[in-house]
Specification:
CATH superfamily of the largest domain: P-loop containing nucleotide triphosphate hydrolases
Keywords: ATP-binding, DNA damage, DNA recombination, DNA repair, DNA-binding, Helicase, Hydrolase, Isomerase, Nucleotide-binding
Number of strands: 22
CATH architecture of the largest domain: 3-Layer(aba) Sandwich
Strand order of the largest sheet: 12-13-11-14-15-10-16
Distance between the termini: 37 Å
Largest sheet: 7 strands, parallel
Organism: Ruminococcus difficilis
Structural class: alpha/beta
Strand content: 15-25%
Helix content: 25-40%
Catalytic activity: Couples ATP hydrolysis with the unwinding of duplex DNA by translocating in the 3'-5' direction; ATP + H2O = ADP + phosphate + H(+)
Shape: globular
Protein name: ATP-dependent DNA helicase RecG
Bound molecules: adenosine-5'-diphosphate, magnesium ion
Radius of gyration: 29 Å
Family: Belongs to the helicase family. RecG subfamily.
Length: about 675
């Protein structure tokens, strides 16, 4: 099997350069990847309906003989239509195909096939338009449906998969050792692969799926463990003194009890244990995680080490940089910013400052983990909004020092089983208290007809010295009809409603420097209104903003809406969140109304999970885990099973690098090299 990952799909007969390119679009370049391109759905071709029994429109599988040669009729504009009639012992059905010149070659007169598709009726009888079909000799089966792309349909993929399976060696090396398979009732890899593509029965399919899902989660599980293994090592970073009291003096506010506890937890980890700190600080948006991180950085730096603070977006990094710089003014701590969009010369300067130790605290994006960045003596790595980073990225940052301490911060509450995998043996501090004088954001849901009223309200807020965000889902004009695009929206706003008020626009397609300029302008209260896409979703902090208007609210998930709403209500003024939607069905309305009824992030995440189902919970791969081919992060039962199996494997073989686990290791490498799961806006 491993060698098939080195065999290009073009090695299959019938796959030329053009086909190969189409496969590439589906993320498939090798035969191995094609074999792992599991069907997205299945059709049940095992239940055949006699033609005479079909009296209602619907989707059916019939087993019938082609009763006439396929006729081709040209239509205007080079289009054409193929027709034939098929029969079984009970009746006949007309088949119609459009623009497929191969049909007449594929369907042989007098031969028997399974036909699967929708049957409709007209005055002449029943017909099937463009049914899928396969020779009857294949026997009743469950038919795979593959995710397709332009020019590459499911049937073609199916053919290629069939050829790929023929390339499998007689005995396929199995990453799961036999003893483990026996103990947990898992079938062998070869059978699993064959049955996941071409199962004979639903039971076969389920058995195959169970095996593959379990294997993938075991691979994930063990991979995460090895990434984390550093956590049990001794840290080269010795912290002797707690400087958090001194740091508190620098703050313009009193820390909340919860913040103090989180800081104390961290300092305790570093002071009292020989191993490195490995801590997650979880707190709802606005709970003040930044101050906690800053305090811990301060203590580490005062003990003679460097600290690195990694943020998921340039905007956020720049903002943290400014905050930290102001805060640490006069303390002698040197602060640097390192992001991809800096001028080369600036990057060079910061990098050399990190290498020689003259920069003690660096705030940055992924630029921090590139090979070019070296530290003199990194003592602490902080990742902000952890769910946006891959675990591999986190590990990379840690590798820049001699087992530095790790602090990860996240606003996203996650289900327990998944948390165990993502964070493993991380210790957790929860900030369960908001800074004082926060008034809960008042949230309303309005139809588009209420927009005028809200604009008037925004004007009033602006005249009181406040600012407003307006969020639209997309960037470019006309991307989706009826969906406001930031550019277009802002233009209209400036022209029609707020010609006298400075409006800024920010979205992911701007150059980072342009983005920063606009964000800065908003933070400095030069722009009163900021029209934005979800680039502002994470972390941005402008306490003076009091209105968050969200257009097409139906397009956002609850957790995302909560993140967006978290951009307001950060000061002591009453803040408002207005969701506008004109495309609401019952379910959407119910979902959005949850937002109006609570400000509690944990409750909202819970509802989100319940309503949307776990698949969508994290939005697009925002959990920092590798992309899975078949398993589902929300499949609690399989997650638990995989945990058990991973334990058993470690118990039996002790060392992940032992020879019996060679194939399993190869799978781990492959899963994690799919990497790159960060969503930079
Ligand atoms: P988050 O947890 O979402 O990252 P931030 O760290 O950005 O939250 O803090 C949100 C806002 O609250 C910031 O403007 C910050 O200065 C302010 N803040 C943080 N802690 C306190 C506190 N103890 N008292 C008052 N304001 C605070
Ligand atoms: Mg934050």
């Amino acid at each position: 099997m491993p060698s098939l990952f080195k065999t290009p799909v073009s090695a299959l007969s019938g796959v030329g350069p053009k086909r190969a390119e189409q496969f590439e679009k589906l993320g498939i370049s090798s035969v191995g990847e094609l074999i792992q391109f599991y069907p997205r759905a299945y059709e049940d071709w095992s239940e055949v309906t006699p033609i005479a029994d079909i009296t209602e429109e619907g989707t059916y599988c019939v087993k019938a003989v082609v009763g006439s040669a396929v006729s081709n009729t040209m239509l205007a504009g080079g289009r054409f239509i193929c027709k034939t009639t098929v029969y079984d012992d009970t009746g006949t059905v007309k088949l119609v195909f459009f623009n497929n010149k191969y049909i007449s070659q594929m369907l042989a007169y007098g031969a028997e096939y399974f036909f699967y598709g929708k049957i409709t009726f007209d005055s002449y009888g029943s017909q099937m338009v463009a049914p899928a079909f396969s020779p009857a000799r294949q026997g009743p089966h469950i038919h795979p449906v593959y995710r397709s792309t332009a020019g590459l349909n499911s049937k073609t993929i199916e053919g290629a998969v069939q050829k790929s399976l023929k390339m499998l060696p007689e005995t396929v090396g199995d990453p799961l050792p036999e003893g483990i398979r026996k103990k947990f009732d898992l079938c062998g890899l070869r059978k699993a692969i064959e049955d996941i593509h071409f199962p004979k029965t639903t039971a076969d399919l389920e058995y195959a799926r169970r095996r593959l899902v379990t294997e993938e989660l075991v691979v994930l599980n063990l991979g995460m463990r090895s990434l984390r293994d550093h956590s049990r090592t001794l840290s080269g970073v010795k912290i002797h003194e707690d400087f958090s009291a001194q740091f508190e003096e620098l703050l313009p506010f009193e820390l909340t009890g919860a913040q103090k506890r989180a800081i104390a937890d961290c300092v305790n980890d570093m002071l009292s244990k020989p191993s490195q700190m490995n801590r997650l600080v979880q707190g709802d948006v606005g709970s003040g995680k930044t101050a906690v991180a800053a305090s811990v950085c301060f203590t580490v730096i005062k003990n003679g080490f460097q600290a690195a603070f990694m943020a998921p977006t340039e905007i956020l990094a720049a903002q943290h940089y400014e905050t930290f710089q102001k805060l640490l003014e006069g303390t002698g701590v040197t602060v640097g910013l390192l992001t991809g969009s800096l001028r080369e010369s600036d990057k060079k300067r910061v990098r050399s400052g990190l290498a020689d130790g003259t920069i003690q605290l660096v705030i940055g994006t992924h630029a921090l983990i590139t090979d070019k960045t070296e530290f003199n003596n990194l003592g602490l790595a902080v990742t902000d909004e952890q769910h946006r980073f891959g675990v591999a990225q986190r590990a990379k940052l840690l590798s820049k020092g001699d087992n530095p301490h790790l602090l990860v911060m996240s606003a996203t509450p996650i289900p327990r089983t998944l948390g165990l995998i993502i964070f493993g043996d991380l210790d957790i501090s929860v900030i369960d208290e908001l800074p004082p004088n926060r008034k809960p954001v008042r949230t309303v849901l309005l139809p588009a007809s209420g927009r005028g009223r809200i604009y008037k309200f925004i004007r009033e807020e602006v005249s009181r010295g406040r600012q407003a965000y307006i969020v639209c889902p997309l960037v470019e004009e006309g991307e989706l009809e009826g969906v406001a695009s930031a550019e277009e929206y802002a233009a209209e706003l400036m022209l029609k409603y707020f010609p006298d008020i400075p409006v800024g626009v920010v979205h992911g397609k701007l150059k980072p420097a342009e983005k920063d300029a606009v964000m800065d302008g908003f933070a400095r209260n030069e722009y009163k209104i900021l029209v934005a896409t979800t680039v502002i979703e994470v972390g941005v902090d402008v306490p003076n903003a009091s209105v968050m208007l969200i257009e097409n609210a139906e397009r956002f998930g609850l957790s995302q809406l909560h993140q967006l709403r978290g951009r307001v209500g950060r000061g002591d003024a009453q803040s408002f969140c207005v969701m506008i939607s004109d495309r609401m069905n019952q379910v959407t309305r119910q979902r959005l109304e949850v937002m109006c009824s609570t400000n509690d992030g944990f409750k909202i995440a819970d509802e989100d999970l319940k309503m949307r189902g776990p698949g969508d919970f994290f939005g697009e791969r925002q959990h920092g885990l590798p992309q899975l081919a078949i398993a589902d992060f929300a499949d609690t039962k399989s997650l638990e099973l995989s945990q058990k199996i991973a334990d058993e494997i470690m118990f039996r073989y002790k060392d992940l690098r032992s020879d019996e686990l060679r194939l399993l290791n190869a799978e781990i490498d492959r899963l994690f090299s799919r990497g790159g799961h960060n969503t930079m806006n």
